[in-house]
Every structure is written in structure tokens, then in C-alpha cells.
């Protein structure tokens, strides 16, 4: 999308060998973010829970890989510590266990909060602390969801985790700003990952959602990755504490 894009002044879209940790990097949005960061010269550390996916990504872009299950708090902290020095962090890993509210289970709720929210806190703490120790101007992007703003049936745990993530992002932005660490979240609409295609390809389900998007299409992984990469750059130096909708105009209709 960006090609050899140059922005005004001396800024160029080049991460200049900065080390970027991407969670949930094996598939979908996370894989596209990792690939795009590599394209713009970042040194990528890909964290995921499926060894096969990480190995194929390593073959593709030559990244470092960390295998971890983010539902486990101790494993999450150890994984973040293994990543070493990090300049850029993308908290992308998430799960969606869809259940009607009246039948929602404690097990599904706890697992969702552990992966989608608690893991972000743990990883960001580890990374932010070492950024502060090194005196670097870091950038963190949390991948949230439009469901933080728009209620959807069967999404009680998922939506609550993403709304919590947006508020966590805001608090992190307030507290870490004095250390020159920016924190933002992005909030995509439906994204056509393999899982997204399966979930929303039924016209009865996807049609009404699509009809509310003025651009008349769902997002592709590249649409999200390009925005994430821009927010990570110095060209977005005054963006902090955002919950940025990437929804094609859904919420203005």
C-alpha cells in the first residue's frame, strides 16, 4: 500500500532495523503486520501459539519466533522477557468465543479476558519497563475491535475485553507518555481473515453489516496492517491514546 512512500520533511517510512514484537503473528492480521513491518526494514519478533505458523513466517521473512500460550500468565511474562530489547510492540493476539449472553460460560469469559486483556497488560509492562530503562521513544499499538463501540449478538465476552483494552490503552498512554512511549489502539470492522470469511460469508449474517458500511466492503488484513505500521512510525509522533476506528464509515451511518 505504501510502496516507497515519503511524508513531508525528513520523515521516511522506514523502521531502520528497529526491533518489533508482534503477538498473534502466525495468522491473519498479525501475520500481515509482521510481514509489512519486515518490508519496511523492521527486525520482527513473531510471537504465536502454533509452531507451524511461526516456522512458515520465519521462512518467509526471516523473523525471530517465540512460541507461547498467552492464556497462561507466567508463560506470557516469560515470552515477553525472551523477546529482549523491543522498540515497537503490537499486541494483536486475541480469541473470540461467541456465546449468547444468557448461556455465556465463566470458562469462556475467563479465557477471553486472559488472552485479550491480561496478556496485553503483562507483555506491555515488560516491554515498557525495558524501553524506559533504555531511554527509547517507543510505540505500542493494541489491536482492538469495532465491537468496543458497537454491540453485537453473542459477543459479550469479546466486546467487553475489547472495551477494556481501549481503556487500558488510554491509561497506558497517560502514564507512559512522560517516558516518550506512545500507546494507541486500532478498532477494525470485520476483517476478511480465513476466520472472518467463515464467520461473515453468510449473506443473512454479513449482509446487514455490510449494508451499513459506506465503502460497501469489509476490511482486508492489509487495511489494518498499513494503519498499524503508520501509527508505529515517527510520522505519527503526536498520536497518543487513540481508539482509531478502521470501519469504512460504519459508525457514522
Number of helices: 8
Got a strand count?
Answer: 7
CATH class bucket: Alpha Beta
Largest sheet: 7 strands, parallel
- For CATH, the homologous superfamily is named as NAD(P)-binding Rossmann-like Domain
Nearest-angstrom radius of gyration?
A: 17 Å
**Which CATH architecture?**
3-Layer(aba) Sandwich
- Kindly, what is the distance between the CA atoms of the first and last residues, rounded to a whole number of angstroms? 27 Å
Return the CATH topology: Rossmann fold
What best-fitting shape do the alpha-carbon axes yield? globular
| Nearest-integer average pLDDT | 94
Order of neighbouring strands in the sheet with most strands: 3-2-1-4-5-6-7
Strand content bin: 5-15%
Q: How would you describe the overall organization of this protein?
A:
There is one protein chain. This protein has helices at 28-39, 51-61, 73-82, 106-134, 156-176, 194-200, 203-211, 221-232; strands spanning 19-23, 43-48, 64-67, 88-91, 139-143, 182-188, 243-246. The two termini are 27 Å apart. It has one domain (19-191, 221-245): 3-Layer(aba) Sandwich (Rossmann fold). Residues 5-9 have low confidence and may be disordered. It has a 7-stranded parallel β-sheet, sandwiched between helices. The protein is of the alpha/beta class.
